[in-house]
């Protein structure tokens, strides 16, 4: 039977009264005292015994019990770091960075030395690193350079319950690797009770339970559905803040993304100003993926007396980050989810209702330190009848192109018999093969081509890496690199303060002037900044976010380094010759092309889906619409929007993607340009 270590939760002793903390401790000593108070500490020895005894272990414990920050340190203290690095994967970049920073502090070392992190485009490790936090995607990439992962002694696949695409693929790879690397320790760590499933997948590996301390949480539902959950969250926050005792605890709000979070923060700031001085201070802390590091640190700061903190987060705060002192949770009931339709090959980010399991995780955040309350901004009926029981694993609702390419590069050819915990729909796999074939990465026997092998070297989506590589043919590698880097940073580059909106818009128009759409605007912006000698002053003058630009430069440097590795010459054609640049872009993004329909709307060429130019695009207000547009991505909010669009020529499609488009696809667009009223025959 199963070897259940640890104790069942009813064995937990009631919380002992807080010991008075000795005065005069240094900050680091205080941290050490704190470490010993975490639930996992009581099971330190048992945990290490279990690891010594078993090669594979499933670890389960409530969020905040210390799994992520403590167990890698325990393994290090027990000597495993002498045998190799201890890796701990995280589904999210912010979590990897933030946890690494915390552990470096606990171990009293400089971040990047003994404790470091690796996320895409940012490697904060050194030869000294022994505890390495990394995104699951980065560990996946490590297999390409080190197929047996021999520089590692322990792998912790953390937040396994999140079931991200990369984590799911890792399961298959690590399951294989532990068979021939008997010295490698593998720990699968999860915050929820789906451990049985992990255990049976991993040949009945034992489950190690860390009982958590949980206080009851009152769940309050809305009587009627809320039309605007951001506004409802603001109102609920203010009600709590004004009516509840100031020492009763902090507030955590779950929204879906940066825009909503910023909007919520802004509204809260405005409305609290109007409350007058008698109401205690409300400290507003937003958290989302692209948040600068200094602001990340604010989330964890202890709330000063006579004030309250409100953290406004995406589902990153569901299990990846623990914020102490939260007693009120406000849950919008939504999260941004990737959704993929293999029939149309369309992938987009969609605001989707969360699952019941996720809603319960969220409400649990209110009961870590004291009894709490969770305000669900949806109805009890909706919870019962409209929410799915569990979140569908990402692998079943995503474009598999990138992962298939990487697995092919690892020599895993027969993907249909890969040991998936939950296999992706066959249709998604087939579509990935077809798309990689259309991109030229696979040949007609499904084998990796020379181009495909080069593409796999880049930590980019196949469409982007194809654009970079093909740019050599058009003599514009330098330009495509700059454009791709600007597209990859995923943050807004243009700065538009409300009081200077007119100036900002003029500055932005300057980049768009001359044509070429958003892609070429971004290229002009980067090139001009480069010509200025990367000046921050230039950024101010042109209403451009200097932080985003620096990030783009870092990304660019890394991709350029990889170009050298695959012997791609950094040719240049100059910005004015941007047709070449757009051609290279289209050679990768030909799946994302839409054409002007008679109605004046755009429809995607193959699937004939109606799509709209995103209002933030520099082409949104063009008087003469282009016949064909290539777009970077789709985002579904109120409508299906194309983000980052550029005008192209229809003929390019048959030239650049002959496996995918035929003359008829372009012909039809020409026909549609004929006058609307045609005489009846
Ligand atoms: P788990 O992985 O089990 O959810 P963690 O190891 O992430 O738990 O967290 C344990 C404790 O460490 C939490 O109570 C949290 O307060 C603290 N902690 C984690 N990250 C930070 C950070 N960046 N700054 C301050 N405290 C942190
Ligand atoms: Mg954790």
TrEMBL record:
<feature type="compositionally biased region" description="Basic and acidic residues">
    <location>
        <begin position="6"/>
        <end position="15"/>
    </location>
</feature>
<feature type="domain" description="Helicase C-terminal">
    <location>
        <begin position="234"/>
        <end position="411"/>
    </location>
</feature>
<keyword id="KW-0067">ATP-binding</keyword>
<protein>
    <recommendedName>
        <fullName>RNA helicase</fullName>
        <ecNumber>3.6.4.13</ecNumber>
    </recommendedName>
</protein>
<keyword id="KW-0508">mRNA splicing</keyword>
<feature type="region of interest" description="Disordered">
    <location>
        <begin position="1"/>
        <end position="21"/>
    </location>
</feature>
<feature type="domain" description="Helicase ATP-binding">
    <location>
        <begin position="48"/>
        <end position="211"/>
    </location>
</feature>
<keyword id="KW-0547">Nucleotide-binding</keyword>
<keyword id="KW-0507">mRNA processing</keyword>
<keyword id="KW-0378">Hydrolase</keyword>
